[in-house]
Amino acid sequence: MGPDWYCDDVIPGNVRVEVLGRTANTLAFRPPIPGFGTDHVIVIPTRHVSSLLDLDDELAVELLAAVKKAAAHVIELHGGCQVLTTLGDEQHNKHLHWHVAAGAGVARFVAR
Ligand SMILES: [Zn+2]
């Protein structure tokens, strides 16, 4: 996995992924191996955007609609899901991506 796996491999189609949905500027897919959770969908803009902080308002609407659609699909299959994006030092791939994940391995809130 390169520094920008999405621009380098996923968007050009160099890696086989299960595409769940596509719009003019977004792609929702399952990666070959779930990064976490037992079901893991990733939603990305198909042009390079570094992170949520660099996302313009127009694309934000289209991207969030794609995230909603992916989340509804995962909820239908698993009863729930977790939706998150990472930023700064927590963001390992500097191409904005949303994780929609369900099942074992997702982060759990622990009441203290
Ligand atoms: Zn990129």
From TrEMBL:
User: Pfam families, alphabetically?
Assistant: HIT
Q: Which residues form the HIT domain?
A: 20-102
Highest taxon of source: Bacteria
**Which Gene3D superfamilies would you find in this protein's record?**
HIT-like
Protein's name in the database: HIT domain-containing protein
